[in-house]
Write a structure and sequence with these properties.
Keywords: Membrane, Transmembrane, Transmembrane helix. It is elongated, with a radius of gyration of 27 Å. It has two domains: 2-35 and 182-233, no CATH class; 41-175, no CATH class. It contains six helices and seven strands, in the order αααβββαββββαα. 40% of the residues lie in helices and 19% in strands. The strands form two sheets. It has a four-stranded antiparallel sheet. The chain has a three-stranded antiparallel sheet with strand order 1-2-3, with no helix packed on it. By secondary structure, it is an alpha+beta fold. α1 runs antiparallel to α5 (177-190) and α1 (2-32) crosses α6.
């Protein structure tokens, strides 16, 4: 019986051993990296400043009257100026000045650079900017709900990247190379190599089950080698 258990243990661990190594490497990376840094919080200046409601002269009632199809209305701010952002029926995303009610024009390249520099916490120069309008042109690190956006990259070794909404001018995402590596580490850790969102995929379940079986057979062998009264006769 022990020879059969030993055989099962050997082949089970040979099959899942590489994944155990991946779990160890990825786990070490994820627990040693500061999650606030990974989220890019150190890249942007503090956004704790509250909206000055006294400067909001265009009321929400006026907005509802002027835009009857408005939904998902949010009062936010761009570079310190309050604005409303909302979905206006088939027109899509709209941003209006919360002081005057004037429609904000789409953010152009010059304005996108200005907004990016306004939010950036360091002093590196911008070395690239492009407008992303379609899902086919969108990098995997960005959610489609933010389109269209300006992708602004800074000249620094970790390639800090800001995504600026073309409609509202809001900073919708912050990325850098350590975040991108963390994303791949997460995918290898949960064994979802597509988008890294399915933590209960069948491949992970299979390998985890085989790993459990390998651990059980190993525990049986350990018992007979270490704790069994007849351990001297165990090979």
């Amino acid at each position: 019986m022990l020879s059969r258990v030993r055989k099962y243990h050997k082949w089970l661990m040979a099959f899942v051993g590489i994944q155990f190594l991946f779990w160890s490497i990825t786990g070490v990376y994820m627990v040693t990296m500061d999650i606030h840094y990974i989220h890019g919080e150190t890249l942007a200046k503090s956004e704790e400043a509250k909206i000055d409601l006294a400067s909001v002269d265009y009321s929400i009632a006026k907005l509802a009257a002027d835009y009857s199809e408005a939904s998902q209305v949010t009062l936010t701010q761009s570079m310190g100026d309050p604005l409303y952002s909302f979905i206006n029926g088939e027109q899509g995303k709209v941003a209006i000045d919360a002081k005057t009610g004037a429609v904000r024009p789409p953010v152009d390249e010059v304005k996108a650079k200005e907004i990016a520099q306004y939010h950036y916490a360091m002093n590196h120069e911008i070395n690239g900017i492009r407008l992303i309008q379609s899902v086919t042109d969108m990098p995997a690190e960005l959610s489609p709900r933010h389109l269209p956006v300006w992708r602004v990259t800074f000249d620094q070794f970790a390639t800090p990247t800001f995504y600026i909404s073309q409609q509202t001018g809001a900073l919708v995402a912050k990325r850098h190379d350590y975040w991108r590596l963390f994303d791949w580490m997460w995918r290898f850790h949960i064994m979802d190599y597509d988008d890294g969102e399915n933590v209960s995929n069948w491949f992970l379940f299979l390998v985890a089950t085989l790993g459990l079986m390998g651990a059980i057979t190993g525990a049986v062998l350990t018992y007979y080698r270490v704790l069994s009264p007849n351990k001297k006769g165990v090979i």
